[in-house]
Design brief:
This protein has about 475 residues and is of the alpha+beta class. It has a domain of about 30 residues. Helix content is about 55%, strand content about 10%. The strands form three sheets. The protein has a five-stranded mixed sheet with strand order 1-2-8-5-3. A four-stranded mixed sheet has the order 4-10-9-11. The protein binds protoporphyrin IX containing FE and 2-acetamido-2-deoxy-beta-D-glucopyranose (2 copies).
């Protein structure tokens, strides 16, 4: 090794030690309220800097977590993506973390914050967060989504029609459905918006979201940032048009723009982009899994079919109001359990991130300030302590309510999903029409795609979906 290299090493070593001393003496002057002599949670931190990132990504992440939980219990430390962290698979502990906003704040990589918008709801705390949350929640209350029920139904029917007889990639088509519903709840039937351009920008944004955050011409990240700018301009134009016409609008943009909301245009834009992001892929992913599970479980499909056909039969007999209405969706227990079981087994948000705002004492351990804390939803949903035979798809398990805090597909506490009602509603409406009017042939499932063909039901013979699986 050359002398200069050795010197470099030495210098950096010494500066790290000095920095450490400096930090320690600072904490001497500002002592923590918590006993910092407490032990850290059990676990290993892996290599310096890279920690256990490689282990987590090189093996199946499920296996990584399962092995850790077996060895260290439901709360263990690790080091991933450059951060020390504590992972939590104990239901009560997860709830504690999600509900103690004064101890744990949301945390996202800077690149993701820039892409969605720094002022978007997910990243916020305190009064600003509470204000945003109130505004979002009042657009997605049961009362509010009742009003757009028939529009959601038309969107569902139009989507299904457009798939008839074609071989479709289920996830892509479901994303079209869910973005159309999201745009309806955000912009109402605002004609001024160019939905097609907006969807195209969204597609680019989404492809860049999980790419390496390198902002150089040609990279996916760069393209995504450009698409973000274009989206922001579109929202800004819609805002200024609405200001001119001074019309009242009963949608999310209307509620963000109200005088009382007190938001700047930039804050509005960041949150519109954020809500579309939160609403689209999540719901489309769940719908795609549901189609797969219905294909694989003929008896479940049969029970669902019976439920929906009996709703239709009742309507025919009463001879009055035809067509589905909002209260019908409250009366679909079988399909609701299919949705719940899919949310559990697919656990599409495997975990979320928080960061300790200060040193926290928890169950006899120290969670140091600045450490990331990850409630592991997927592991909670897949633990045999919480769900018998967790790997089995069995909607009937939800005939009995799950134990408290063991089922958190929409999170819990301060940042719990404000869209859960509309997500469930749009899934029920689409499934009702899919199940009663079509039989589906599932052609194949690859790792990423579920390809499906829909046929209109024309004979009394009902075919069970064919399923071929190519992993
Ligand atoms: C089945 C579909 C969905 C699932 C599984 C889901 C799941 C979640 C979860 C787990 C969180 C909490 C994240 C955390 O605590 O860090 C969350 C937050 C959020 N979701 Fe959903 N979501 C879905 C659909 C939707 C829809 C349709 C909307 C549209 C309104 C939406 C809007 C949001 C927003 C705005 C937040 C952030 C709330 C906050 O930070 O206060 N989600 N979602
Ligand atoms: C909805 O439809 C059901 C029949 O399925 C009917 O009994 C009920 O009165 C309808 N509700 C409304 C609000 O129209
Ligand atoms: C949080 O969990 C508790 C207990 O399981 C539940 O009663 C409550 O409704 C949950 N809150 C949200 C917002 O999901």
């Amino acid at each position: 090794m050359e002398f200069t290299t050795v010197l470099c090493f030495l210098v950096s070593f010494i500066s790290i030690i000095l920095l450490n001393l400096l930090i320690k003496s600072f904490s001497f002057f500002f002592p923590s309220k918590v006993n910092t002599q407490l032990p850290l949670p059990p676990g290993t931190m892996g290599w310096p800097y890279i920690g256990e990132t490689f282990q987590m990504y090189s093996q199946d992440p499920n296996l990584f977590f399962a092995t850790k939980i077996k060895r260290y219990g439901s709360m263990f430390k690790s080091h991933i993506l450059g951060y020390p962290c504590v992972m939590i698979s104990n239901p009560e502990a997860a709830k504690f973390v999600l509900n103690k906003a004064q101890l744990f704040k949301p945390t996202f990589p800077d690149s993701k914050q820039r892409m969605l918008g720094k002022q978007a709801i997910f990243f916020q705390q305190g009064a600003y967060h509470a204000n945003l949350r109130r505004l979002v929640l009042c657009t997605f209350t049961t009362e509010a989504i009742k009003n757009i029920f028939s529009d959601i139904e038309s969107i569902a029917q139009n989507c299904l029609k457009s798939w008839e007889g074609k071989l479709i990639t289920t996830f892509l088509e479901m994303k079209t459905y869910t973005i159309n519903v999201a745009l309806l709840s955000i912009f109402g039937k605002d004609e001024t918006l160019n939905a097609e351009v907006l969807k195209r920008c969204y597609y680019t944004l989404e492809r860049g979201y999980n790419s390496m955050p390198i902002n150089l011409p040609g990279t996916l990240f760069h393209k995504a940032m450009k698409a973000r700018k274009e989206l922001a301009d579109m929202v800004a134009r819609t805002i200024s048009k609405r200001r001119k016409t001074k019309q009242e609008h009963n949608d999310l943009l209307g509620s963000f723009m109200s005088e009382k909301a007190g938001l700047t245009d930039e804050q509005i834009t960041d949150n519109i982009i954020g809500v579309i992001f939160a609403a689209r892929d999540t719901t489309a992913t769940v719908l795609t899994w549901i189609v797969k599970y219905l294909g694989e479980n003929p008896s479940v499909l049969e029970a669902a079919t019976e439920e929906h056909e009996s709703i239709l039969r009742c309507k025919e007999e009463s001879g009055e109001e035809m067509g589905l209405n909002w209260s019908d969706t409250k009366n679909m227990p079988v399909t609701s359990r299919i949705i719940q079981e899919t949310l559990r087994i697919a656990s599409i948000l495997s975990f979320t991130f928080r960061e300790a705002i200060e040193d926290v004492e928890f169950q006899g351990y120290l969670i140091p300030k600045g450490w990331k804390v990850l409630p592991l939803f997927r592991n909670i949903h897949h633990s045999p302590d919480n769900f018998k035979e967790p790997e089995k798809f069995d909607p009937s398990r939800f005939e009995v309510a799950p134990k408290p805090n063991t089922f958190m597909p929409f999170g819990n506490g301060t940042h719990a999903c404000p869209g859960n009602e509309i997500a469930k509603l749009e899934m029920l409406v689409l499934l009702h029409h899919l199940i009663t009017k079509y039989r589906l042939a599932i052609w194949f499932i690859t790792k990423h795609n579920l390809l499906v063909t829909l046929f209109g039901v024309c004979s009394d013979e009902r075919h069970v979906p064919k399923l071929e699986c190519f992993e």
